[in-house]
Amino acid sequence: MAVSFISSNSLNAATSIKRDVATAVFPVRDYDLAATLESGQAFRWNFINGGWNGIIGNHWIRLRADDFSLTAEAAQPTSDWHWLRHYLQLDLDLATVTMTFPDDEPMRAAVTACRGLRLLRQDPWECLASFILSSTKQIVQIRQIVSLLCERFGEPLTAAPEYTPAFAFPTAARVARATEAELRACKMGFRAPYLLQTARLVTESQIDLERLRQLPVELSRDELLKLPGVGRKIADCVLLFAYGFQSAFPVDVWVMKALQKLYFPHRRAKAKRLHHFSETHFGPNAGYAQQYLFHYMRTKHERA
DNA sequence: CTCCAGGCGCCTT
DNA sequence: AAGGCGCATGGA
After folding, report:
1. A95/B1 CA-to-C1' distance in Å
2. What is the pLDDT of residues A137-196, one digit of tens each?
3. Is the dihedral of CA A256, A107, A34, A85 positive or negative?
4. Residue A48 in 3-state DSSP?
5. Residues (162-201, chain A) with CB within 7 Å of strand C atoms
């Protein structure tokens, strides 16, 4: 896929602000950037002045979308954009995924309502830590906790000068050196010891997050489930959002509501039944289908 | 005030 | 094995 690339140290004629940035334009189709960044899979994107500011690894980045392309602005000279293409999964042909979804009315409605919704490919440690912090929290609260954690323990990064300072997501080693009290001060409550202990296990190589990529999904899940604060739902989030195991299907309260309302509207289905349904009905990209149902339920479908 | 939020771990049956 | 409950915190 062709990528037009513009590197610029020059002044914009309309402003006197000195810039030293790199910009790249990526042609895309069926990519709803807003839905993707707001769909509860990542927690560090902020919509400002018509664009999305965020951090990927150690890169501050600003993204803008139109109907045919995504425009990325980095705060430092950048010639290799592979990390961004990978994070955004720009080479994925979305139609080949959605065509594997079950051909039923709820799935059609969700795909139609959320056209262009994508799954990101995130860093395993950031994803794992973020979802340990997610339990019984609303997305706005998770965002606040993660933001505090990054400000207090993450490495400072260079952002474009007109925007607020940026911080990398703190490494497992840095979190492992924090005290439980310091973590609780980030408002994470009873999740603090889970995060701290998991950070220590990662730092001590009791678990190798990179090795999990190479395992079958079931074995990778078993490894994640050994970590404190990680149950089936959070493990499946990491499998899906960080490793790209697209059969992983996180079942949370929203998805339970969605399955009940969309697929069993006339009789109350037990949790066991809904779990079994989630594992058998949605096919090889079940996790992708789950994201459509989740986002559809959260944003578009009539609230009961 | 009460209730609940993209759950998990532990304690009961 | 399956179900109930406490856990921090903050917003509705």
Report:
1. 51
2. 999 999 999 999 999 999 999 999 999 999 999 999 999 999 999 999 999 999 999 999
3. positive
4. strand
5. 184, 187, 189-190
